[in-house]
Design a protein that fits this description.
Chain A: One of its GO terms (biological process) is transmembrane transport. The complex is a heterodimer of chains A (about 270) and B (about 325). With about 270 residues, chain A is mainly alpha-helical. Helix content of chain A is about 75%, strand content about 0%. The termini of chain A are far apart. With about 325 residues, chain B is mainly α. The chains are: A mainly alpha (about 270), B mainly alpha (about 325).
């Protein structure tokens, strides 16, 4: 069928695709060490000055702080809402389940520019409040809840419901069952949900663009800097740092996921 | 448990007072308990999404008067969208000298650009997903992570990277000039719809690969063996089994890329230029620079309706195609 010496063309395509995926992204760290204000070949010398400039930039540090505040609040609130929804969805026979889940998943299919405008209209005309970090958090909760619910549903469906029933039969009330059985078993899913929501919020631009008052999050700050050529190298340095941290987070969350998976067969072995 | 109480003679249970009966029913009824648990999430979603969307639709029937909004019902905003006008073109900074329904035209263009990007993403992603599902034997997880990692880095910076690549003094131009292949930078690389398409194709790659990979992975391998045994070649086997069975993944991928990219704002702003302006930019500039929230709302409503109708037609068309195939 296949000539023995021939290289599989699929491998070639996969490598081409990886170059396409990583090439543009890896340009950021490459030019962040380049000793020139212009992002162009040939490269000049090696420098760390853009990183030094970045650390000294107060507006940047402030935006980073805002992004952390928004990301942490939004991911915790969304995960709590996601757990409640997922538990109701997976453990109860709900009439109108399809409509409800469709409604919760709706933000995934509405362009976020429309969500942003709709929320801003509400904030300005109905509540008559000024946009602030709180309005950004509200917007981010809206787009994070669907992700959280999906993650939590797959986790709650992943372990044996009998464990919860056994706990109820042994006389625990529903809160005790939740804290002692469901919560620990759902923990890897909760961590995954918080991380997913945090990264989504941390990277989200459009909703923050509409809902930010005077406070900028990191993407808003980056966007404002992209117009200033003199700021480009330090934006590249910042981008490289975000890239590095993202690698680390993906790596760690994958590790965590594996720990969760290794525990699961052991738990079911105990149960049987 | 229900059957146990039913088998008891009814006089053994003294009738409870109505309040207590209601409470007992309330706590035992699964739907009520389920909805009780669901209520915080549901309330937040209604408050943050349904109410604002309804509000936006309502707003689209009002008129902006300098600083305040005139709350008399009118269809004027919708007439403005469908009516040929060069005022709008002037406002958007586009040199359109003929009278045209400019908002509709831009919506149409956004849909075309988004369709092109979706096609590019899916066509490029399919072989990669195929490779993952059928050729990678070990380290599948490592490959999947490798593909999704760029997706977790800032969207803004991924788009910006293409500006660096395609720009006048960008990587391609400076590279080609310093290699002596061209003596003057090429101007046509950046600030056009093509730049938007290639940037979107890169930025949304992972979103398309995953659903296609999942549907390919689900295919029963014995079907492929049977096809080979019955004399199908590689191409026939792919066209008659693999491709049709992976269609749900392709459909999911297309929708997941198409719907959000129509309203994208960052990519057209950074790499599109005036020629690459899309409906998201129009809505944004109407809202802020134009200070006309009702018209922005009306444009949003028309865009959303158009996208919804397109998606429904697409799903209906695909569903019909698959039904007829099943009949054969």
């Amino acid at each position: 069928m296949k000539r023995p010496s021939s290289v599989d063309p699929m491998v070639g395509y996969a490598l081409f695709y990886l170059v396409f995926l990583y090439g543009p992204v890896l340009l950021l760290p490459l030019f962040s060490f380049n000793d020139s204000i212009f992002v162009a070949f040939p490269l000049k010398g090696l420098t760390f000055q853009w990183y030094a400039q970045m650390v000294e930039n107060d507006a940047l540090i402030h935006a980073l702080g805002n992004s952390l505040k928004v990301g942490i609040s939004a991911s915790i609130i969304s995960t709590i809402l996601g757990i409640l929804a997922a538990k109701a969805m997976t453990r109860f026979r709900l009439p109108g389940r399809g409509v409800v889940s469709g409604m919760i998943l709706l933000p995934l299919v509405i362009p976020s520019i429309i969500l942003g405008i709709a929320l801003l209209v509400l904030v300005l005309n109905v509540f008559k409040i000024d946009p602030s970090l709180y309005t950004i958090i509200a917007g981010h909760v809206l787009i994070c809840v669907p992700f959280s619910m999906l993650v939590m549903m797959s986790r709650l469906e992943g372990f044996d419901k009998n464990l919860e029933e056994a706990s109820a039969d042994l006389g625990e009330n529903s809160w005790q069952t939740f804290w002692r059985i469901t919560f620990p078993l759902a923990m890897p899913g909760i961590v995954a949900s918080v991380l997913l929501c945090f990264t989504t919020s941390f990277d989200e631009f459009l909703l923050a663009f509409f809902l930010a008052g005077n406070e900028a999050t990191l993407p808003l700050f980056i966007f404002s800097q992209l117009r200033l050529p003199s700021q480009l190298p330090s934006v590249l340095a910042l981008g490289s740092c975000i890239l590095g941290v993202s690698f680390l987070v993906v790596f760690l969350s994958e590790r965590l996921r594996r720990i969760g998976l290794q525990k699961k067969p052991a738990a079911s072995a105990e149960a049987t | 448990m229900v059957s146990a109480s039913e088998s008891l003679p009814s006089q053994a249970l003294p009738p409870l007072p109505t309040g207590q009966r209601l409470r007992a029913w309330f706590y035992r009824n699964e739907a009520v308990r389920g909805y009780l648990l669901l209520s915080p999430t549901l309330l937040v979603m209604i408050g943050l999404m349904i109410v604002p969307l309804v509000g936006m639709v309502g707003l689209s029937f009002f008129t902006q008067t300098y600083v305040s909004i005139d709350y008399t019902f009118t269809l004027n905003n919708y007439w403005t969208i469908f009516e040929p006008s060069d005022k709008a073109a002037h406002f958007l900074g586009i040199p359109f000298y003929l009278k045209k329904p400019i908002y509709l035209l831009l919506l149409f263009k956004s849909i075309l650009v988004s369709l092109a990007a979706t096609t590019a993403v899916v066509v490029l992603a399919y072989p990669m997903a195929y490779f993952l599902a059928f050729r990678v034997k070990r380290h599948k997880m490592a490959w999947l992570i490798l593909i999704t990692v760029p997706f977790w880095t800032s969207y803004l910076l991924r788009v910006f990277a293409w500006k660096i690549i395609l720009g006048f003094n960008g990587v391609i131009n400076s590279g080609l000039v310093s290699l002596g292949i061209i003596d003057k930078p090429l101007e046509f690389l950046l600030y056009n719809p093509f730049a938007v398409v290639i940037t979107l194709a890169h930025a949304w790659a992972a979103v398309a690969i995953l659903p296609i990979y999942v549907s390919l992975e689900k295919i029963d391998r014995s079907l492929l063996e049977a096809a080979t045994d019955l004399g199908d070649g590689h191409l026939e086997r792919f066209l008659r089994i693999t491709l049709p069975l992976s269609l749900p993944g392709v459909i999911a991928a297309s929708l997941l890329v198409f719907i959000p990219t129509v309203g994208d704002y960052i990519t057209p702003t950074l790499v599109g230029g005036t020629d690459g302006i899309m409906i998201g930019n129009v809505v944004q500039s109407l809202f802020s620079k134009g200070n006309n929230a009702p018209l922005a709302a009306a444009v949003s409503v028309v865009s959303m309706m158009t996208i919804t109708i397109m998606v429904c037609l697409f799903l209906w068309f695909v569903g019909r195609g698959r039904l007829s195939r099943r009949e054969i």
